[in-house]
Amino acid sequence: MASLPVPQICSKKQNSCFCHPQPGCLCMVWSTQPENGKGRWIPGLFWLSWELQSHLTYRPKDTITDLNTWEEAEEEIDFEKDLLTVPPGFKKGMDFAPKDRPTPAPGLLSLSYLLEPLDLGGGDEDENEAVGQPGGSRRDAVSASPCSTPLARASSLEDLVLKEASTAVSAPEAPEPPPQEQWAIPVDATSPVGDFYRLIPQPAFQWAFEPDVFQKQAILHLERHDSVFVAAHTSAGKTVVAEYAIALAQKHMTRTIYTSPIKALSNQKFRDFRNTFGDVGLLTGDVQLHPEASCLIMTTEILRSMLYSGSDVIRDLEWVIFDEVHYINDAERGVVWEEVLIMLPDHVSIILLSATVPNALEFADWIGRLKRRQIYVISTVTRPVPLEHYLFTGNSSKTQGELFLLLDSRGAFHTKGYYAAVEAKKERMSKHAQTFGAKQPTHQGGPAQDRGVYLSLLASLRTRAQLPVVVFTFSRGRCDEQASGLTSLDLTTSSEKSEIHLFLQRCLARLRGSDRQLPQVLHMSELLNRGLGVHHSGILPILKEIVEMLFSRGLVKVLFATETFAMGVNMPARTVVFDSMRKHDGSTFRDLLPGEYVQMAGRAGRRGLDPTGTVILLCKGRVPEMADLHRMMMGKPSQLQSQFRLTYTMILNLLRVDALRVEDMMKRSFSEFPSRKDSKAHEQALAELTKRLGALEEPDVTGQLVDLPEYYGWGEELTETQHMIQRRIMESVNGLKSLSAGRVVVVKNQEHHNALGVILQVSSNSTSRVFTTLVLCDKPLSQDPQDRGPATPEVPYPDDLVGFKLFLPEGPCEHTVVKLQPADMAAITTKVLRVNGEKILEDFSKRQQPKFKKDPPLAAVTTAVQELLRLAQAHPAGPPTLDPVNDLQLKDVSVVEGGLRARKLEELIRGAQCVHSPRFPAQYLKLRERMQIQKEMERLRFLLSDQSLLLLPEYHQRVEVLRTLGYVDEAGTVKLAGRVACAMSSHELLLTELMFDNALSTLRPEEIAALLSGLVCQSPGDAGDQLPNTLKQGIERVRAVAKRIGEVQVACGLNQTVEEFVGELNFGLVEVVYEWARGMPFSELAGLSGTPEGLVVRCIQRLAEMCRSLRGAARLVGEPVLGAKMETAATLLRRDIVFAASLYTQ
């Protein structure tokens, strides 16, 4: 039951609220600070909590006399005279004077009449003031609160109560769109903020350094509760923006969520933010620390689960910080970011932190339209530490000085340095050939060559005081080889060795004895002792954290790492080295993209320590091409692209709720943004067309004109059918082969209507073939398309529609040479002329010059024109054309059926009666205008409907899969199996089917864990022959269930083949997981598989998460035995070094 609002009262008149606060009220309160008399507007909810806190806090200096004085002051308040009616800074306010009201007729007394004196609307407030509009100032935006919106008078108390109830439950209405719907607002990051400390005299957070301009601009917008997109280079200081948002939330007593793409980055940020703010929690798949904290660090998947489950955390949420937003381009996990952004409530403000991307405004515009609020885009290309890029061609102590500047700190590309590097490399290769023969060294070189290159490079860098250095190598194996090859290199002092030794002892003490003796642990300890480190996914997580911490302390001088080290936490080096500019992206070897290069190169240069950062590209083989280097170093980074795709979990979760349909999720995705951003314009155009259609005069279709609508429809259908057939011809191999030089074609486009032409030359560009063609015409074509007249007749008669009524010049026959696309050719004739294309083109080009404009054409040109004219005169209805089925051998069903339909339409058109009426032209034009408007309206309705969604067919196919498997019923209601699938973190269909088939219940916990490893293992390999028979049979059963699901998907129309679906399973670590679950020490697992230790740990960690999901699902369906087994399996997996606590959380 909703209660009537009670006005907020302040005894000392130092605070005033211009609305009636209700539960959850976020209205603005003018608060005066007693110590300095200054006032400001603050959210009423926060003011109320602060006031209560101030009154409830024990004050030693307050005496009984003071308390009595306060009570007396409160008792002496005059509620008639002492209350403010005009908020400070406003011209108008509340009018509590009684108003004259008409007296109702006797006996007709309604509740609305009794409630009318309660002036809930603010009197005669000027509605023309732009209060609460997007883009306004903080003070202007106060009336956008739901609490400050005037309540409409209700006709009954029931209506009022219902409206109050609905207002309390529903989300606040989105603000009205700004003029022209400009949702992405670019902010000039070079404009200084001179009055920063005047605008924010008491910042929520302060740093030991002066914030940069772009940071100050972002902070100003955060103070206004705006959403921001900050795009800046690596190490530019984007974290400052996140820190201020966390401090603001703590000041407002609300919550902030910081999301990161990977768990390791979440752990690092947890340590950093906990040291700064204290009240910080961490939520990952296997760790929950302080979930009640005001700032929560989590992966994006955890936040998505909270949104689907309706977590209470979301209610108190003020900010969500998305770090590394460019990770949305990840093909596998990028969809999670889109889901979260779509489902976030409108009251949550968004902070997006990203590397520099070219389409930041487009991405912000999508989010702004999605949330109906402006997103302020702050982009800066300025680096706090400028970079210098070099090529290194040395490979020994004699050549360690071969370092050539390629790109300076101002961004200038030095070709002189490039050619010097080429010359140095060429000279050495020449000497090599003289000594060892003509055989050149390999591009990458072997371990010995690598060792020589790195020893000479590191000696040079050490001499020039350019350590520490990060060496990016795009292979785990090469990282290990290069670090292991530098056995003679020792870069640490005795005091540094002591510090490293003590740190290692302290960190490794938490491991059991055998784990501390693992080969990888011993090898890494030896490397670290000499100042070397290795960082990639194959390294044990605790060792990676040790390497990161020692590197941040400056104790690791040389770090060999893969590109994952470039993501996230700020760990800059003095120098960055690229082992190669080529990488394998999972499918092929390719050059680094500009965005990838910039992300890794950005680790060079330590702010406050280095004047410039140094980036070095090793040239072990030949020097790369200058164009490739220029593109990689100075090219535009990759755009943010949607990776949105439909998953069964998403569909089932959305089918269970009424708030958001699957179609709505697709409609709001970034992939649909280009077609959906003009929806409002489409709606306006549709409304205008509807008015136009209503104002048009109906065509007269009586008498002879009775078949006029059918005639128009037949003509439109015939044209579409002919275009379809011609398109199929042009897409076929035989069709393109027939379009060789000399082929006569019928040209039909904007300039020519059924004019004969002969192909002179065929060429190809990046997208299609281009046909240079000589075409007949009346006179030289005007350059202005408006002066050419219509290419097709305004009112087509049967001769214009059926066949090809060829163009014949009315005066002297002229010709032109044009470049045609396949779509410009209406037909391919059977005629081929012998022409000299080169001579004709040369002559035509010459006669286009003013000096030779009046020269007669060559004989070759004249002959070709005469042949075309003779052919047109001999066949006025069109020359014989190549038959797509008989001549071009097209067996496409649509082509055959289209040809039959075209002939039927031609018969109908020839027999039409309307063309004989004298009123035909006028009535045809009326009908055509009406039909064209209706066609455009249908197009707009389609664009505005769900039917235009790109993924709608796939959605229907996946729903059919779910319906076939029994996860949803015919009405789309989620059944028990569907609810179980929602509880799975991955492989929802396969796991649910295994559970309902009782394929797991009969197995022991360690056997279940071993089988399920095939769903999470990422390392290729076979299960091996040493497995127990139960596991071998279990593997075959899992594959059989996967095959059945794959067959259902194929039957429902999905593109994924059965082999591809079954091929996603990988049972290479079944034996390893089985023995680990049975208690085998980790040190003995290495002999069972060649998989790197880090990947084994990752597999077991993901497997434990899957076991917990299955445990919850088993309880959901009432399977206590299976639930207990999954609980046991998870317990067996969670032990020793595999689940050692992160060093960042200790």
UniProtKB/TrEMBL annotation:
InterPro entries assigned: Beta-barrel_MTR4, DEAD/DEAH_box_helicase_dom, Helicase_ATP-bd, Helicase_C-like, MTR4-like_stalk, P-loop_NTPase, RNA-DNA_Helicase, SKI2-like
Stretch list, region Disordered: 121-149, 165-184
GO cellular component: nucleus; Ski complex
Pfam families named in the record: DEAD (PF00270), DSHCT (PF08148), Helicase_C (PF00271), MTR4-like_stalk (PF21408), MTR4_beta-barrel (PF13234)
EC main group: hydrolase
PROSITE patterns registered for this protein in UniProt: HELICASE_ATP_BIND_1, HELICASE_CTER
Reactions that this protein is recorded to catalyse: ATP + H2O = ADP + phosphate + H(+)
GO terms for MF: ATP binding; hydrolase activity; RNA binding; RNA helicase activity
Compartments reported by the entry: Cytoplasm; Nucleus
Protein name: Superkiller complex protein 2
Lineage per the UniProt record: Eukaryota, Metazoa, Chordata, Craniata, Vertebrata
